[in-house]
Amino acid sequence: MSTLSFIVSASLRSIYFTAMCTCAAIAHAQNPALIGYWHNWNDFSAPYVELDQVDPRYNVIEVAFAEPAAGTTYDMQFTPSLTAPATFIAQVAAHQAAGHKVLISIGGANATVQLNSDVERDQFVASMLTIIDAYGFDGIDLDLEGASVSITGGTIAAPVDARIVRLIDAVQAISSQFEVANGHAMMLTMAPETAFVQGGQGAFGGIWGAYLPIIEALRDQLDILHVQLYNSGSMYGIDGNIYAQGTADFIVSQTEAVIQGFSTGGGFFNGLQPEQVAVALPACVSAAGGGYTDTATVRAAMEYLLGEGPQPGSYTLEQSGGYPAFRGMMTWSVNWDAVAACNGANSYAENYERIFGDITTSVDAAISSTFIISPNPAHDALHFASPVHGPITIRDLSGRIVHHMQEEGPQQLVDVHLLSPGNYLLEVTGFPKLRFVKD
Fold it and tell me: 275 lies in which domain range?
């Protein structure tokens, strides 16, 4: 079992997390995660935002985009458009110092990425590694749309399309070389459209289900899948019914589909762990062509998914009690979320904070003190680096108290061996809640 410690710097409102790990793998991003795309361009309606001005509740930032050089579909390029590279590099580092992750997103709606030969695959790998190294990114996001990804046959487990196979090989090569260079694993996220994933229930070919072989091949490296639950037609749920975007039923049904898995013409797609899945929605109406969902509906859907609220529509979760370890929320985009006239400044981040409580990054810069526990995941006991005083409470993710210590004297450990495996919240007087895992 690996040992993982969390340093928690507490402020009056919430907390920062910084992970330190003695093993080869690290905790790539906070759980819960608030993921936001950052525009590398200026738009009158959603202006350019300096990276260091992004709302600090966003703890995973996807920089949009690395795109192919003109005349190619594989030679990737990225330069910050309105920020000096040296300044941008410093801004990335500042986010990382605060415990955030900053990734470079590949593709987007306007860029076709295709690897049509082994030479193109190798140049894709080399150019992406150059970008990652130059700016210090923590990993990559695959936002491949349109003609970038399609299938003509094969199965989820055994793809036959050379472009798909080369893409899988390329991501594995980038991941492997990143780990050699940095001493820890690369973070990998994906942002497919619904047709490329859940759409595989209705058809398997062309764009329909085309991301499923990629997800399957990379599932062990994949940190977060956030399927775009917008700009979408209606989709099947795993109950066989059809649901429309912009509703709580759409959020819940499409999310559970990628956790539970589903049948396709290319075989059964085995679902992902809840910790690998986030809900992805536009920050406001203007941010997408369709699929905006008001904050109250989003909150109702999320609380039902987390097992913390009632059923908000007609879709019934297959797993009673929901998914307390669910990873979080993504939005397109931090720029749109910052526009006050859009839906109120940073309303998506505020809704995330309401949903997940104070297990989030701080909007206060002040740091009052430090509190360290290890190991995390824990087996028998959690150890405190320095003595704590007063009561200690452990809750499950539904808020139910499962352990309480009332002792007033100094304490340096808490016995957790009787707890069932799962995710818990630790409450210590004077500090906000801290999430830990019992293995």
Answer: 31-356
